[in-house]
Amino acid sequence: MYLREILKTKGSNVLAIEPTATLADVVQKLVENRCGSLVVCEGETMVGIISERDILIAMAEVSEPLDTVLVRGRMTTDVVTGTPDDTISDIMGLMSDKRIRHLPILEDGKLAGVISIGDIVKAQHHQLTVENHYLKNYIQS
User: Fold this and answer.
1) How many helices (H) and strands (E) does the chain have?
2) Rounded distance, CA 112 to CA 104, Å?
3) For residue 43, what are the contacts with CB-CB under 8 A and spacing of at least 6?
4) What's phi and psi for 134, nearest 5 deg?
5) Left, alpha or beta for 86 (phi > 0: left; psi -120 to 50: alpha)?
6) Could you tell me the pTM of the whole model?
7) What pLDDT, in 10s, does the model give residues 83-112?
8) Judging by DSSP bridges, how do beta strands 37-42 and 16-17 pair with one another?
9) Are 76 and 48 in contact (CB under 8 A)?
10) CB 71 within 8 Å of CB 65
11) Which of 24, 25, 36, 52 could form a disulfide with 67 if both were Cys (CB 3.0 to 4.6 A apart)?
């Protein structure tokens, strides 16, 4: 199974924020959308990603209020990405090795969506359930 299949089901909607926004803006948007990360974009270009973990680290390291700290200074800029043609098993290993929970998906250099570790687990579970169903039917017939 490929990430393309997850994106077909999930859609390509990406929640983004500008690097000039504040961490308070990030927290508000994360809470409103019940999500764990935002892609940081300047126009159409992805320049980073900011997650709940980045917010917690900033709170531990910075004594300033979150509404004065800019995303630009706290975002992850060395973003690990995938493509729609990556397999779920490869991405599971990558996300586990890199300890990341949200993976921007790029197609031809443009943002095509974001996959979470939850999306991967859900797709893997669905695939195993279908295989299990067909194997049981095969054995019983």
Assistant:
1) 6, 5
2) 8
3) none
4) -65, -40
5) beta
6) 0.85
7) 999 999 899 999 999 999 999 999 998 999
8) parallel
9) yes
10) no
11) 24
Closest alpha carbon to 37 in 92, 76, 72: 76
What are the structural domain ranges in the chain? 3-140
Please classify residue 2 by burial: count the beta carbons closer than 10 Å to its beta carbon, then call 0-12 exposed, 13-18 middle and 19+ buried.
Answer: middle
Do residues 132 and 109 touch, judged by C-beta distance below 8 A?
no
Helix (H, G, I), strand (E, B) or coil at 24: helix
Q: What is the CATH number of domain 3-140?
A: 3.10.580.10
Residues in the chain: 141
Q: Please give the structure tokens belonging to residue 27.
A: 């927290």
Find how far residue 69's CA is from the centre of its chain: 23
N-to-C CA span, the chain: 27
Contact present, 40 and 19 (Cβ < 8 Å):
yes
Angstrom distance (rounded) from CA 39 to CA 121: 21
- In whole angstroms, give the CA distance from residue 73 to residue 70: 6
96: nearest Cα among 104, 106, 88: 88
